[in-house]
Amino acid sequence: MTFSVLAGAADAAATPAWVPLAYLVSGVFFILALRGLSSPATSRAGNRNGIIGMLIAVATTLVTHDIANIVEIGIAIAIGGLIGFTIARRIAMTAMPELVAGFHSLVGLAAVLVGWAAYLNPGAFGLLVDGAISPVSKVEMGLGIAIGAITFSGSVIAFAKLSGKMSGSPILLPGRHIINLGTLAAIIVLTGLFAAATGPAATLPFIVAVTVLAFAIGSLLIIPIGGADMPVVVSMLNSYSGWAAAAMGFTLGNTAMIITGALVGSSGAILSYIMCRAMNRSFISVIAGGFGADDSGGSGEPREQRPYKQGSAEDAAYMLEQAEKVIIIPGYGMAVAQAQHALREMSDVLEENGTEVKFAIHPVAGRMPGHMNVLLAEASVDYDKVFELEDINSEFAQADVAFIIGANDVVNPAAKTDKSSPIYGMPVFDVDKAKQVFFIKRSMGGVGYAGVDNDVFYMDQTVMLLSDAKKMVEEIVKALD
């Protein structure tokens, strides 16, 4: 998306006939990239197609536009590429969700900066008509700046929540819905006034107000959203970043930005909607900043301690050896412990023993869409052994063992029974129907990301395995061997 900064150098010269075709080809590669990223099996090809598409788009822009200083542009690309390459090589999978949120913030900020650059120097962007910016261009500019600012500040809050620098529990301000709706209405009105005004002295106050209010509403929309809904937020912010780029594409008259922004915006919105349906959440309520959330929500503190059964690796190994069918439910705790490779080794040993092993992935397992799928793919778990909630939930009644590793909220029956719970209404795995449940958790002192206790800990068939997830699984594998 930072391609928008390069596209900002567009001039008013006639566009060569081959340029739209080149941008169309890059758009096709972006579509193929999205198609490839829809499955772990084709994700590498999807990434390659995205890289090819971006190279075509950037090269076309550089070749066909009057760049003030190609050396400076080259240095900027090299520095950005080096930083991105270094981060990609060093980042842990546990930190991937906040990294994605951080990158979304940069996309939003880029849109804001390009919009302001176009406003301050419209002649360099080919926006002047009879010596002034047209009202249509002002509307596009205002929308691009507003969406970009919302994306930036919202992504910063998401980054803080995902990285633990801010509480994952909903932060509910009094009268937040009135404030949010009023702020959004003010942004729309101010954008209209900005488009109607003429001259720098008249337009500057409006565009400043739009920018400031958009930065504010971005934060206000995200802070009321709790941890259980954060994967939807990541997807939603991805959609916002796309629409910001598309709006800037209209302002700058750049086809590639419009195509790319529309693809990212629409795909992110569709993914957010699919996830909301899977979680039994209202799509409108989530994008409106937790509209309808119960101000009394979860306290974030565990309830009074109740009796539970604690077991060892040897206990788990014995029961797993006797099992005919095992369903493994991974969660963020597995990612933190980097236990996916040990888990795959455990599943291999069980399958060699004749046990049927399946992996159950919840739509919001982890901190972003597909987090667990990527981790299991990294550990070379066969894709045909990984199932979504709706495809496997009915099989828990036939399972001998439900093996929960680092998951919590996605197996919490409070989602079905406790209307005061912040996760109420979210579909969860029916692990209570399995004959035996093993639950790997560091200690009994913590609660899930949504901040609520879990009745599964205290069920008669549940045995708690209190340890680091990787260490516990390695001990189970050793006992199995």
From TrEMBL:
SUPFAM superfamilies per the UniProt record, alphabetical = DHS-like NAD/FAD-binding domain
Membrane topology term reads:
Multi-pass membrane protein
Q: Name one Pfam family in it.
A: PNTB
Q: Which reaction does it catalyse?
A: NAD(+) + NADPH + H(+)(in) = NADH + NADP(+) + H(+)(out)
Record field: transmembrane: 20-37, 73-92, 99-119, 139-158, 178-197, 203-223, 256-276
In its keyword annotation, does this UniProt entry include Membrane? Answer: yes
The entry assigns this protein to a family as follows:
Belongs to the PNT beta subunit family.
Localization, UniProt: Cell inner membrane
- Is NAD among the key words of this record? yes
* Function, as annotated: The transhydrogenation between NADH and NADP is coupled to respiration and ATP hydrolysis and functions as a proton pump across the membrane.
Source domain of life is: Bacteria
Q: Which UniProt keywords apply?
A: Cell inner membrane, Cell membrane, Membrane, NAD, NADP, Translocase, Transmembrane, Transmembrane helix
Write down what this protein is called.
NAD(P) transhydrogenase subunit beta
Which Enzyme Commission number(s) are listed?
Answer: 7.1.1.1
Domain named NADP transhydrogenase beta-like is located at: 21-478
